[in-house]
Design brief:
Low-confidence stretches of chain A: none
Shape of chain A: extended
Order of helices and strands of chain C: HHHEHEHEHHHEHEHEHH
CATH superfamily of chain C: MTH777-like
Structural class of chain C: alpha/beta
Largest sheet of chain C: 6 strands, parallel
Distance between the termini of chain A: 16 Å
Number of strands of chain C: 6
Order of helices and strands of chain A: HHHHHHH
CATH class of chain C: Alpha Beta
Chains: A mainly alpha (about 220), B alpha/beta (about 300), C alpha/beta (about 280)
Largest interface: A-B, 58 and 76 residues
Number of helices of chain C: 12
Oligomer: heterotrimer
Helix content of chain A: over 70%
Low-confidence stretches of chain C: none
Mean pLDDT of chain A: 85
Number of helices of chain A: 7
Radius of gyration of chain A: 26 Å
Largest sheet of chain A: none
Strand order of the largest sheet of chain C: 3-2-1-4-5-6
Radius of gyration of chain C: 23 Å
Helix content of chain C: 55-70%
Strand content of chain C: 5-15%
Number of strands of chain A: 0
Structural class of chain A: mainly alpha
Shape of chain C: elongated
Strand content of chain A: under 5%
């Protein structure tokens, strides 16, 4: 029962959505599809509660047992509730605890969460520089082509570099855009996208038919 | 010999003539009929080409799965990244350090995440056998539930139920970079011997992989996101690209029923390659307008 | 250890320091640089320009606060262009922060500049969980997916939404994304409902999106800060992105320099090792 019921649900849901693709929205199966989609958004909303329960359980246990760094867990719990409670209540239910301008939520979002997230993303620039310096080596003919292309593209994407490329005769920037980005890059991207899409479709079919069960813990 | 060649040439000429002159007319006539039917039919006749593709795709997969079940040997090329998984877990055991597994940072409705969770099941079986600690940070609650279920089941199957720690699969944070910061902190503190990244990754791919590299871990990554592949290739020891991720579960299981699906998928890929070559040839000679319409809504 | 060998094995902390300095310098010594317009940015601008005045446009804030530096200039430039053309804007997001926070903040700020009224000239639908379901569901009925807007007002009470029931009523979609949701706008909305889409995204996503340009699934593309700067120039509102290009220029040059130094070091070390072995 623990295996067959989820497989049956997966089969019926998958089948309805696939078949509905070939029927008009105002048909019976089209309406059923729309119902399924609305259910999905509702169920998805409830699953977010699971996350809150998990993080509260793990953090609270750490605080209770005074594990290393337990103080930070208190901050985590405060952060979770400070952001989660206003998010589920109407925007302006309270001038302080709502979500409109000047509320705690607004303040935390604008002056803590947003800058911290931007800072984390900005560290990518440092890591890219370090990874490029370490990994970009002209070890073979292919690696050399890759290296030269990468440097040329980096130059092309900046005004100073574009000016430098323009000094070389033959409209190199336009050539790079047309043949490297719109040619070689695009062909490779499409190859990977087509392969990955087929892989995803095949995996979906295996799931719908109950062949692939590992994601439910059934090998 | 000459006769055979001439007959073959005759056939080819016949086929080409049909493709170039007859098909466009048939399709044009059909399009006019279809336009009339589309307006008053509940069935989307304009999507008939997609239906044909779905039928061919499903048939190929089911047929190959049937052959595989019947015992027909099916060749799977080697995927070094997956062959390295057991060795990498063995290394962690020898070093007495944990294995870190991240099933991507997308939700469970993303097929890449399901692939990642499936691979997690296979990896958890190995860590259970070796009694190696496993750490699985996740970003979404549904992935948490699925991950816990999969890992627990793997430990039960390996007869190591007592070694299973429910908090080994842990919800870390719902936000991308809070998740990344927590996992990076874990990597630097605990220094896992092996990091396995399998699933959908975004801007955090390099942040994770570079930190893992700095912590001296063996790293195996797999994603179907083409934009993140360069980062993983630069910073990891092994990288699974595109559909290799979806093939991983079948590859690791070696079950005929699973490998059959892969062969069916390869067959359809061959059909697509042939279709692309025909399209390129027809477009080159400027006679391919009708052919392109075959792949659009009729 | 020779200089070149040291360059090959340069401690990553020196690299971090160099990047930090390269980012700071343009703020101290600003140097305006000329920026040319790529065909992808030009075609996106042309597509928006070609929309009839007053068209309904969906402006999608599918990015996290982390990529504000790249995506916010695109969003601001898009608002300038769309409000200037008197387009009716419907904003939404598939990212929890996008709709409730970023879309709300930027669209309101820009609407105030152009004297636009909420509910009549623009509406913020906010965020709803599950982007695949959301994008598919809106094809049939936007109201069934978003019964109320971001502030909880029923869509039936918003005059703009009287004329917008599903994708058939949308003339154009301007998607700003730092993640894979853009793929779903292509495969679900453009492929199945035929709505034209223009995309602005982070630089790292841009190479992948080129595949959607030549297939016509994206009418145009703004790649990262460079794309944002191009759009700012096209709408004649030069702002943060044009300024940001200076720092980006220096960091790109630094990375190229590091790669060159690393490779020279690699070859010097290798030739020494070969000589040693001989």
């Amino acid at each position: 029962m623990r295996t067959s019921l989820p497989i049956a649900v997966a089969f019926i849901s998958g089948l309805v959505l696939v078949v509905a693709f070939f029927f008009r929205d105002d048909s019976l199966i089209g309406s059923l599809r729309q119902e399924f989609i609305v259910w999905l958004t509702i169920i998805g909303g409830f699953t977010l509660l699971l996350g809150v329960v998990s993080i509260v359980r793990v953090s609270w246990t750490a605080v209770k047992r005074r594990k290393e760094g337990w103080f930070y867990k208190i901050l985590t719990l405060l952060g979770v509730f400070a952001m989660a409670i206003p998010a589920v209540l109407p925007v302006s239910w309270s001038p302080l605890f709502g979500r409109s301008d000047g509320t705690i939520y607004d303040w935390l979002f604008n002056y803590m969460q947003s800058p911290m997230m931007s800072t984390m993303f900005a560290t990518l620039a440092f890591y890219i520089a370090s990874a490029a310096h370490r990994a970009f080596r002209a070890r073979s003919a292919e690696a050399t082509i890759l290296l030269i292309t990468a440097c040329a593209i980096m130059l092309w994407r900046i005004p100073m570099g574009e000016a430098m490329l323009n000094m070389i005769p033959g409209d190199l920037p336009s050539w790079l855009n047309t043949y490297v980005m719109g040619g070689a890059n695009m062909a490779v991207q499409r190859g990977i996208i087509i392969g990955a899409a087929l892989g995803a479709a095949s995996m979906s079919l295996r799931i719908i038919l109950g062949i692939e069960r590992m994601y439910m813990g059934k090998g | 010999m000459i006769k055979t060649t001439r007959t073959t040439l005759n056939y080819l000429t016949g086929i080409l003539t049909t493709i170039i002159f007859v098909f466009p007319e048939v399709i044009r006539a059909q399009s006019e009929e279809v336009a009339e039917i589309v307006t008053d039919s509940l069935f989307r006749v304009d999507r008939i080409n997609a239906l044909i593709f779905v039928v061919v795709f499903c048939s190929a997969i089911l047929l190959y799965t049937k052959w595989a079940k019947a015992g027909k040997p099916l060749f799977l090329r080697k995927i070094p990244g997956l062959d390295a998984v057991e060795e990498a877990v063995g290394r962690a055991t020898e070093m007495g350090r944990p294995v870190l597994f991240i099933p991507g940072i997308a939700e469970l409705d993303e097929i890449e995440t399901i692939a990642g969770v499936s691979i997690l099941g296979r990896v958890a079986k190995i860590t259970a056998q070796y009694d190696t600690p496993l750490m699985v940070p996740v970003r979404y609650p549904l992935v948490l539930a699925a991950g816990q279920e999969v890992v627990e089941q793997a430990y039960i199957e390996a007869g190591k139920q007592d070694s299973y720690d429910k908090d080994s699969v842990r919800y870390v944070a719902g936000e991308q970079f809070s998740f990344t910061a927590t996992v990076n902190g874990y990597m630097m503190r605990e220094r896992p011997a092996t990091n396995i990244y399998m699933g959908a990754f975004f801007a955090e791919s390099l942040l994770l992989a570079e930190t893992g590299n700095a912590a001296g871990s063996i790293q195996i990554a797999g994603t179907a996101r083409p934009e993140q592949l360069p980062f993983f290739i630069a910073a990891c020891d092994y990288t699974l690209m595109g559909e290799e991720l979806y093939a991983a579960s079948a590859y690791l299981s070696r079950e005929p029923i699973m490998t059959g699906g892969l062969k069916g998928q390869d067959f359809v890929k061959m059909l697509i390659i042939v279709a692309i070559i025909i399209g390129v040839l027809l477009a080159t000679f400027d006679v391919g307008e009708w052919y392109i319409h075959l792949f659009e809504e009729v | 250890m020779s200089f070149w060998e040291r360059m090959e094995k340069l401690d990553r902390r020196w690299v971090y320091l160099a990047v930090g300095i390269a980012v700071i310098i343009p703020f101290i010594l600003p140097t305006p640089l000329p920026i040319s317009i790529t065909t992808e940015a030009q075609s996106l601008f042309d597509a928006v320009e070609a929309l009839p005045d007053g068209s309904n446009v969906m402006l999608v804030y599918d990015y996290y606060p982390s990529t504000i530096a790249e995506c916010e200039p695109i969003a601001i430039a898009a608002c300038h262009h769309l409000f200037r053309k008197n387009c009716k804007i419907i904003t939404l997001s598939n990212i929890p922060y996008g709709g409730p926070s970023m879309a709300e903040k930027i669209t309101r700020m820009m609407a105030d500049q152009y004297g636009k009224t909420y509910g009549v000239d623009y509406v913020n639908l906010g965020y709803k969980y599950g982007y695949v379901a959301v994008l598919s569901g809106m094809g049939q009925s936007i109201e069934s997916i978003f019964p109320a807007d971001n502030s909880g007002t029923l869509l039936s009470e918003l005059p703009l939404m009287d004329s917008v029931k599903n994708y058939e009523d949308i003339a154009f979609i301007f998607e700003i994304a730092d993640n894979a949701t853009a793929d779903y706008w292509v495969s679900i909305v453009n492929a199945q409902y035929g709505v034209p889409i223009g995309c602005g995204g982070t630089a790292v996503m841009a190479p992948k999106f080129y595949a959607y340009i030549s297939s016509g699934q994206f009418v145009g593309l703004l790649g990262g800060m460079r794309g944002a700067a191009e759009y700012e120039i096209l709408i004649n509102k030069q702002a943060d992105a044009v300024k940001g290009m200076q720092a980006q220029s220096l960091v790109h040059l630094l990375i190229i320099g590091l790669v060159i130094f690393g490779n020279v070091g690699f070859f010097v070390t290798r030739s020494k090792q070969k000589r040693g072995a001989a």
